[in-house]
Amino acid sequence: MKSRLWLWSITICLCVVLILTSQVAAQTVPQHHPRHHQYRLYDVGTFGGPSAYGSSGAISLSTAGATGAADTSISDPFYPYCFLDCFVSHAFLWRNGHGTDLGALPGNNDGNSSYGFAINNSGLVVGISENGTTDPATGFPSTSPVAWLYGHIFNLGGFGGTQGAAYTVNSRGQIVGYSTNAIPDLYAFNAYFPSTTQVRAFVWELGKMRDIGTLGGPDAAALVISDSGLVIGQSYTSFTPDPDIGHPIADPFLWDGRRMIDLGSLGGVGGIPQWVNNQGQVVGYSLLPSTGKVHAFLWDRGRLTDMTPYPSASGAFWINEAGVITGFDAPYAVVWKHGKRTALGSLPGYDVWATGVSINNSNQVVGYAFSDDWFSTVGFLWENGDMVDLNALVQPPSDITVTEPLQIDDRGEIISYAADAEGNVRAVVLVPNGDCDWGCEQRIADHQNRPLVVRPKNNALTMPRFGKPADGLRKPLGPRPDMMSPHPIPLN
User: Fold this and answer.
1) Integer Cα distance of 254 and 265 in angstroms
2) Is residue 253 a contact partner of residue 272, using CB atoms and an 8 Å limit?
3) Which of 179, 219, 356, 491 could crosslink 189 through cysteines, CB 3.0-4.6 Å?
4) What is the reported pLDDT for 114?
5) If we measure between CA atoms, which residue out of 204, 235, 202, 233 comes closest to residue 218?
6) For the whole model, what pTM was predicted?
C-alpha cells in the first residue's frame, strides 16, 4: 500500500514538473504569428497550344471557378489578323483543378476563337467569340458577345454591326458590354477588333439587349456592372473632334438603371473608369490638362476627387465595399483609405514601378512590379502591412512564375498571369494552403536576397479585352490604356 502511494506521489510530481516546464518554454520561445498564407498553384493548362490567359478588369474568378482563354494547337485561320497569338484560342472554365474547353460559336470550319472575360457565382461565363464571318470594311474577323452556361454557348445578339463583346456579369445575371451598329463612324471606339461603325454600350437582361445611350456623342462601351446593377463605362461627349487629340472627348460614365451620368474629368481630355462598388463609388484615372499625365480619381455621390494633388502620375484600379482603393502613385503601388495614401513597399530587383490591381474586402492587395530593366514583372501580395513576392508563398514550389495577378477574391484566391519554364504565358489560380510556416518565411527571405529573373516570351502578342499589344499593358496606365482611342483601319 505504501509503495502504491509512493508511486502516485512520484507520478504527480513528474506531471507538475512537466506542466511547469512547458509553461516556461512557452513563455521563453517566441510564438509564430504568420503574416501570410501559403498557396497551392494550379496551372489552368491549354488545349494543345503554348499559352493560356486570364482576364483583367473583371470578376474572372468566383466560387464557380475561373475563366479566360487557352490556345489550341490549330493555327489561326484569320492570320495576320489573329485573335490572340495566332493560334485558335477557346474560352475555358477552370474549376476544382480541372479545365473545360467552352468552345466558340460555330462556323469557319471550327476555326473560331473565343474568350471568357467574367464569371459569376452561378457559373454564368460571358465573353467574346468570333462568328465565322469577316468585316467587309476592315478585313478583320467579326465577333459577337456571348455567354456560356452548363457548357452551352449563347449568342447574345447585337445592334446590326460586325463587332461585339460581353465584358462583365453580376450575380443577378445582368451582362454588360458593347455592340456595333451599322451607322458609319470615323472615330469609332477601339473594340476588340477595329470598327468603322458606332460602338454602343449595352445591358443584357432576361433575353433582351438594351442600348443604354451615350453622353452626347456617337459611341459608348459598358465595362463593369456591380451586383447592385450599377454600370460604368466610357462614352464620347460629342460628335465634334477635339483639336488636340483628333477625336471627340470620352468621359467616364455611371449608369444607374435610368440615366447615364457624366463623371467629368480632372481638366484633361477624358478619362477611364476601372471599378465600381455596390455603393456607387467609382475609381479610375483621368488626364490632366496640358501635361499628358493621368491622375487617379474617386467619384462619390456626384463629386470627382483627384487622389493625387501633386505632380506624379497615378491611377486607381479597384475599390472594395468599404471604399478602400488600390492602384499606383508612381513609382509605388498604393492603397487609399479615407483619402489617406499608403505606399505598399517594394521588392528587391523589382522596385522601379509597381501597381496594385485588385483589393478584396479583407484589404488584401495583389499587383505586380517591374524589374529594374523594365523587361519583366513579378506578382506581389500585400497584407498586414507587408508586401511579399507571391512566388515565395507557393508550396510546393513551382517552375511556373507568377508575373501579373489579375484579381483576388474574398476567399483569398488569386488568378494571375504567369510564365512557364519556356517563357510561355500561362494562367494560374492560387488557392490558400495553410499558414506561412518557417520554410515559407525562409523562401521569402531567399527571394529578398536573390530576386527572380523572368524572361517571358510573346511580348508582341495581342492581349485580352481590347486587342491591344502586350507592351501596352506594360506601362503605368493599367489594364485599359487608351482603350477607346481611334485606330488606323487597314486599306488592303
Assistant:
1) 13
2) no
3) 219
4) 98
5) 235
6) 0.86
CA dist., res. 388 & res. 465, Å (int): 28
The three grid cell numbers given for residue 71, joined into one nine-digit string: 490556345
Segment 411-426, tens digit of pLDDT: 999 999 999 999 999 9
Is the separation of the CB atoms in 261 and 272 below 8 Å? no
Q: Give the three cell numbers for residue 59.
A: 470578376
Sheet holding 208-211, edge to edge: 164-169, 175-184, 197-205, 208-211
Classified as helix, coil or strand, 293 is coil
In whole angstroms, what is the distance from residue 451 CA to residue 469 CA? 27
- Residue 36 CB-density burial (10 A; 0-12 exposed, 13-18 middle, 19+ buried): buried
Residues sharing a CB contact under 8 Å with residue 264, sequence separation 6 or more, in sequence order: 251, 299, 304
Residues linked to residue 488 through DSSP beta bridges, in sequence order: none
Number of Cβ within 10 Å of residue 231's Cβ equals 25
> Smallest Cα–Cα separation from 220: which of 169, 262, 278?
262
Mean pLDDT, residues 224-248 taken together: 96
Q: Is 399 helix (H, G, I), strand (E, B) or coil?
A: coil
- Between vectors from CA 404 to CA 144 and to CA 268, what angle results, nearest 5°? 70
113 close to 89: Cβ distance less than 8 angstroms: yes
Q: Residue 450 class from Cβ within 10 Å (0-12 exposed, 13-18 middle, 19+ buried)?
A: exposed
Residue with cell 481590347: 466
How far is Cα 101 from Cα 461, in angstroms, rounded to an integer?
22
Give the whole-angstrom CA distance, residue 239 versus residue 14. 90
d(CA 235, CA 249): 8
Question: Do residues 46 and 71 lie in contact, with contact meaning Cβ atoms separated by under 8 Å?
Answer: yes
CA 204 to chain centre: 22
